[in-house]
Amino acid sequence: MLLTSLASDDSNAADIADAVRIDNTVLSRSQLSGASAGVLEDLGGATRVAVLATPTAQTVLAVTGCLLAGVPVVPVPADVGVAERQHMLRDSGAQAWLGERPDDPAGLPHFSARSGSQQPHAVASCDDEDTALIIYTSGTTGPPKGVQLSRRALAADLDALAQAWQWSPDDVLVHGLPMYHVHGLVLGLVGSLRQGNRFVHTGKPTPEAYAAARGTLYFGVPTVWSRVVADPGAAAALRSARMLVSGSAALPVPVFDALVERTGHAPIERYGSTESLITLSTRVDGERRPGWVGVPLQGVQTKLVADDGSPVPHDGESIGRLAVRGPTLFNGYLNRPDATADAFDGDGWYRTGDVAVIDAQGMHRIVGRESVDLIKTGGFRVGAGEIETALLGHPAVAEVAVVGLPDDDLGQRIVAFVVASPAEPAQPGELIDYVAQQLSIHKRPREVRIVDALPRNAMGKVLKKALLT
Ligand code: MLC
Ligand code: AMP
Q: Which residue's alpha carbon is nearest to atom 5 within ligand 2?
């Protein structure tokens, strides 16, 4: 049973009036556990359902109902452009929308999610290997790929995190992150429903909202934590928490140190990806070392591989490509056997695309990514290729190269180097808005630099490393 806390036959005995607080709405545990009845009635037999993943009660009920009813969910960000949304719907084969109504349902039927206080509880029997979620994520090029996450992977990951963090039903988990990614959706919502703790979504992850929420367990991407430490009043209000967790991108050491000073907490750092879920974390009862992301979670194995395929020593200094194996891995990219085959080696190790070091105690440090074409900005993973393709669709753009440049707030900021088309002058602001509309708001370049030419090698390939300086 994936959502353990909602499985009780006698839900009244275990009811909690404020199991979830989101968007000024409070949902009780029995309302959540009854959400499956509506799904089975309206969508029984559906094999995939799209959910417009806004941070609202409708999204919580839709996801909860589907997971209880055994219907795989495709979370769709509200701000994705038309082409990307079409791709997600077509590629996933979603048969209906459940929850918030999209402006344009693209020909699919829409159903509101229903809370279940009046309904008998309905829990479908599911196989552990059944897909629970299909989350679309960027590669270096091409449209986003659908990552198939099984019920087994979700349960294994959440249980391993509960063990590492001593996460318990007494916790009040707070975050204000998007509800369509692993961090906000899987760890935040599904994790809370599995552990049985209260969950509070703050809407936006602002320092003021985090301070006001009075939680015990806070999740944030590094950008959130750097904004918290810049607000001493909000930071001081987090002293009463049990634990602050950072993940999805590298937490700068000065932000780690400022959190210790201003909140009294050395943050827990954890590392993972959409494909592998969370695989490494520091432990509540272990060392928390600035700049390091911890040790493998229960059941997870890691290895470092050199360019020639040989093993790299775990000496805290030697750098290698990080591969992971264990029960939390995804079941391949939907409709993409080629990409799935590339992602794994012959022994079932997932190639993370990250380079790392491991020390003699098994502590891991993420050094960076193998490819400059996968950018992490504010904790969002964005492929340089998808932005370049979008910009080349604008008449003012003749050539373009997109890179992630270091940024104190976002970790990396997306910068587009554009050679303007002779036919039309290129306006940076217009190009930024164009990407925000075509793809999604967080994929917009923060800066467009108009250049006369892009640096290229003798073969004509753009030398992106020359743009990073
Ligand atoms: C600005 N805005 C525009 C715009 N420019 N809108 C349209 N067109 C334009 N050109 C508006 C936005 O709509 C928004 O409005 C506001 O400006 C700010 O948007 P933003 O600049 O994008 O937000 P920002 O403050 O920079 O966001 C920082 C952030 C965000 C930390 C809140 O980056 C974030 O939520 N990151 C979390 C990513 C995450 O969860 N990743 C997990 C991946 S899973 P308005 O009205 O909306 O404010 C994973 C696995 C793991 O990685 O390990 O966890
Ligand atoms: P995503 O699929 O959006 O979850 O992105 C996964 C990528 O985020 C990883 O491959 C890493 O590059 C990066 N990442 C996640 N957590 C961390 C972390 N704690 N430190 C450094 N990088 C991280």
A: 273
